[in-house]
Amino acid sequence: MAARHLRRLRLASLGTGVVVSLLGVLVLAMLPGLSGAAVAVAPQNTGEPQITGTPRVGEVQRASRGTWTGTQPITYMYRWFRCDGRGAADASDCGSIANARNATYVARQADAGFRLRLQVSGTNADGSDTATSNPTPIITSARPTNTTEPAISGTAEVGNRLTANRGTWVGEQPITYAFRWLRCAADGDNCSEISGATDNEYVVQAADSGRSLRVRVTATNDAGSRSAISNPRVVGQQQPPPPPPPPPPSGNSVAAGDLKAGGDRLVVSQVRFSPNPVTSRTAPITARVRITDQRGRAVRGALVFMRATPRVVRGDRQATAGDGWVTIQLVPNSFFPEPRNNFNVQFFIKAYRASDPPLGGIAGYRLVQVRLAG
User: Could you tell me which residues come within 8 angstroms of residue 164 by beta carbon, excluding any fewer than 6 positions away?
Assistant: First the structure.
């Protein structure tokens, strides 16, 4: 009986050990890092970011960060880019917009004509990932905005036809365009509008010779208008036509030195200008003057000078040839008036003999004028 009691005690002790061992296994399995613990994962983008909003200056563009996986918490950062084309997939060929780091962005005037892209970076304790959105449509301006300036094509010579290209514009449609041709100094400054030149084509006028032409394009929509101007096109200097041949002498010719003071006198009998009318403020003017005596005989060797009133040209005195004619080149100075219709420049002409006193002798005088045309 004592032996049977001892066996029961041993079995009871063995059973208790088994229970203790099983409980130990369960406790160990529940300790972190010892069996089956979860592994942390860095962020990864699984659905690309998107931009929503009206692609127009002044409108709010909203960022959707897309979808991400990874161990929480994940923080997100935003960057906005301005692209002149569709842009590379990672926006590497776009320009980062300063201080644009929020989930919303208001399109600026500087964005007009460009596309926007969004870059989102997700970060947690185990790493980061970056994803880039598709580009928006081109951002338009409420008013038209010029992105490529107007241009003039054609050969800029008198009589030729020039054509204006309006350039490229962005803005709310519909957009209408108006053209205005400008006549400027040779360097493109000091421009004035050419009367009636409001088409996209223009025929170069004589008044444009030696000047430059520009075209101003005004684009208008319901929100307003803006203008852009082309680079200048210099018009080739028009050469004055050659002077007409002198007429044959009328009767006999006489030397100025053979005329007698007190009886004979010089006569400014003919004056011709080339060009006529004058259409340029800078091109030389050719004057042909014929001197005769009171009998109609051609006078050779008489001195002739011309002076504008007021003095807007310069020219040297010249002596007449055997047929009584003399050619004088008159060069306009900076005070020469702008050629315009119904405007004239007057000239005082004096023909005299070198040996005579200033207010005596056989001198002859005449007041003439040449017409200007714009």
Answer: 150, 151, 152, 179, 181, 200, 201, 202, 215, 217, 230
Write phi, then psi, for 11 (nearest 5 degrees).
Answer: -65, -40
| pLDDT one-digit tens code per residue, 26-84 | 444 455 544 455 688 999 999 999 999 999 888 999 999 999 999 999 999 999 999 98
Say if residues 284 and 334 touch (Cβ distance below 8 Å): no
At 302-345, the pLDDT tens digits run: 999 899 888 888 888 899 998 999 999 998 888 888 887 778 89
How far is it, in rounded angstroms, from Cα 112 to Cα 57?
A: 7
Of 92, 108, 132, which one is at a domain's C-terminal end? 132
Residue 16 counted as domain residue: no
User: Mapping DSSP to helix (H, G, I), strand (E, B) and coil, where does residue 357 land?
Assistant: coil
Q: Contact, 364 vs 256, CB < 8 A?
A: no
Same domain membership, residue 259 and residue 218:
no
